[in-house]
Amino acid sequence: MSIIETIRSYQDELAAFRQDIHAHPELGLEETRTAQKVAEKLEEYGIEVHRGVGRTGVVGVLRGRPGNRAIGLRADMDALPIEEANDVPYRSTIPGKMHACGHDGHTTMLLGAAKYLAQTRDFEGTVNFIFQPGEEGCGGALAMLEDDLFGRFPCDQVFGMHNRPGLPVGSYAICDGPAMAGGAFFDITVSGYGTHGAQPQQAKDPVIAACHIATALQTIVARNVLPAHPAVLSVTKIAGGDAYNVIPNEASLGGTARFYSREVGEQLEARMRKIAESVAEGLGCTATVDWRLIFAPTINAPEQTATVIAAASDLIGADKVNGQQPPTMGSEDFSFMMEKVPGAYMLVGNGPGANVHNPTYMFNDEAIPYGAALYARVVEMA
Description:
Alpha-Beta Plaits, 382 residues, four-stranded antiparallel beta sheet
């Protein structure tokens, strides 16, 4: 019996688990119930369990044949602050919270791999099953690293996975090198001097300064970043004042930047600070920039990418494996783990349906055996 067929034999158990945590979503670094359920399953499978890693993270340790090799498999557990619009028996029971990115499915797929590997033990060395909290911009990966994740659970290589709506169930995709962008959030506060809206000559208008800064920031990617290095800088909000006839003392703007290398991210930050401060000064105001790196770039290592392609091809045939998946400007904080240990981040087909972060998104339970099997086969082949 193939790995996929073996895991499909306990599909009902896995789907029931996924639907249970879907009905009880928890936001980043609050995943106490989810973590407890995961730990209970790992213990049921006979796997050594470590709780509270990076606050609400869980790590399961499984040893196979004697050997020094150690592999990390990672899944994220947190939900999003979205009101679910799906009409299913297991829809979210928590108002304003929903598994709208499929982390309930990722957690379940890793549990499926854990059960299979605990039964077969057909691998050398140690597998660390890393159930990470707080992926959605909450710093969960960094929290686990700060809790000495790789000191306590050494790994030679790490692998992560995400579902992909629109990619057929039973297919996989990956690319070598940059796979997802690094991401930063920024806020710029512009301070001036307010007055009556009918007497603008007496003001140092922060609203005008903020508008000019927002426009000038658009020159950074167009005129400072090498065209061969993709980057995005988007001002997504701007605010200032509360009345029609009052020029305020302060205005603000904020947004996000995306980039495929730390160096380009640092370039964007440096130019942003210079432009904001200079434009504000030229208009009689001052500006302060709060730049926060939320995600490092996700860079797939060549050896681990090749392992994923070989494992996926072995499972379903090379014709259903896209090894040239275009990178995306979306971000993923598994990247921080991959900066410490070489690894690869793979995509598993979720079939047709709404995109992630949409209130009608739904993880496809039919994808569970394929994700779990790929995790397991990577361990056997790596």
